[in-house]
Write a structure and sequence with these properties.
By secondary structure, this protein is an alpha/beta fold. It has two domains: 3-222, P-loop containing nucleotide triphosphate hydrolases (Rossmann fold), CATH 3.40.50.300; 226-294, 2-Layer Sandwich (Alpha-Beta Plaits). It is 36% helix and 29% strand. It has eleven helices and 14 strands. It has helices at residues 41-49, 70-76, 92-102, 107-120, 136-148, 166-180, 192-198, 216-223, 242-251, 279-288, 303-311; strands at residues 3-12, 15-25, 30-34, 56-61, 64-65, 77-80, 154-158, 184-189, 201-206, 209-214, 228-235, 255-262, 267-272, 291-298. The strands form three sheets. The chain has a six-stranded mixed sheet with strand order 6-7-8-3-9-10, with helices on both faces. The protein binds adenosine-5'-triphosphate. The site of adenosine-5'-triphosphate has 13 residues, from strand 2 and helix 1. Belongs to the ABC transporter superfamily. InterPro entries: AAA+_ATPase, ABC_transporter-like_ATP-bd, DrrA1/2-like_C, P-loop_NTPase. One of its GO terms (molecular function) is ATP binding.
Length: 312
């Protein structure tokens, strides 16, 4: 099921939490909303689920309008809200039965649906426990199970791994990836590695606006600046005059700037001109001057840098 969002905004009194955003998500895509605290991720998700009315804008799931066909839309969406609210005094099976009832699952199918969710979400070992006897990771699995009990086409997961330990995070991620094979999934997070590991595509949201949209690779590529190379050199018969080396490096045709980063060890950071690479010219220069390159590293654009640049 595809999702289309057009010119969506949400105001809370005077504050604009979501500011005229538009995007499309194709059937079967796993998309991550990434953004700092207060960016508008949860508000956008609540509007897609129909839980919150937009101030302006339209949301469609295939040919259904979230506003006009809200009952039909709710049957097709599974939602794991932030903080995963659960009835903690209930046993897992009873809670899932209750959720199935609310979601209109046929009585004759409820028992098999619960069994399938318990299996799918790895709850078998714990299924006789009350929710308040479960660890956080298992509670999160119950949250996912309730979101899927009516077999929705779309899953909306608001910060699904918050508060989990690293092992639980990997388990929930794998589960989401499995689910993503057959459903359209939107998940939110403010953790980069999280969306990178789970999602086909990332929407970076900041101050209620979409500031970037693409695969992790696309985003890195878009943010890529000029080539930056760090080197360390040593002279054949002793030291190197670092000021002279800096001048010779700066004179190379492809080089824009050279910084001495370690005078004692002859460390330099060399930035090339746009679209140019200086690695070969640096190598040739060192050979000409009888210098050994003892270290050469390229500085890769990290997704963290992209995120910081776009949301700072
Ligand atoms: N019910 C509300 N009433 C008033 N303001 C709200 C309400 N809910 C959210 N906001 C405000 O709207 C903005 C966006 O909040 P939202 O919860 O959508 O952000 P978020 O990206 O999900 O943040 P987080 O990662 O911290 O959960 C914030 O400034 C928040 O304070």
């Amino acid at each position: 099921m595809a999702i289309v969002v057009e010119n969506l905004s949400k105001n809370y009194d005077l504050q604009r939490a979501v500011d005229n955003i538009s995007f499309e998500i194709k059937t079967g895509e796993v998309v991550g909303f990434l953004g700092p605290n207060g960016a508008g991720k949860s508000t956008t998700m609540k509007m897609i689920t129909g839980y919150l009315a937009p101030t302006t804008g339209l949301i469609r799931l295939d040919d259904l309008s979230v506003e006009e066909d809200s009952e039909k839309v709710k049957r097709r969406i599974g939602y794991l809200p932030e903080n995963n609210p659960l009835y903690t005094d209930m046993a897992i099976v009873d809670y899932l039965r209750f959720c199935a009832q609310i979601q209109g699952v046929k009585k004759t199918e409820t028992t098999s649906k619960i069994a399938s969710m318990i299996d799918r979400c790895g709850l078998d070992k714990e299924k006789h426990k009350k929710i308040n006897e479960l660890s956080k990771g298992y509670r999160q699995r119950v949250g996912l199970a309730q979101a899927m009990i009516h077999d929705p086409d779309v899953l909306i997961l608001d910060e699904p791994t918050t508060g989990l330990d690293p092992n639980q995070i990997v388990e929930i991620r794998n589960l989401i990836k499995e689910l993503g094979k057959e459903k359209t999934v939107i998940l939110s997070s403010h953790i980069l590695s999280e969306v990178e590991a789970t999602c086909d595509r990332i929407l970076i949201i900041n101050k209620g606006r979409i500031v970037a949209d693409g695969t992790a690779e696309n985003l890195r590529e878009q943010a890529k600046g000029n080539e930056i190379v760090s080197i360390q050199i040593a002279g054949k018969d002793g030291g190197v005059d670092s000021e002279m080396a800096k001048k010779l490096l700066t004179d190379l045709a492809s080089v824009q700037t050279v910084k001495i980063i370690d005078k004692k060890e002859n460390g330099f950071q060399i930035q090339s001109k746009p679209d140019a690479s200086s690695k070969r010219a640096i190598f040739d220069l060192c050979v000409e001057n009888n210098w050994y390159i003892t270290e050469m590293t390229g500085d890769e654009t990290k997704l963290e840098d992209v995120f910081r640049k776009l949301t700072n």
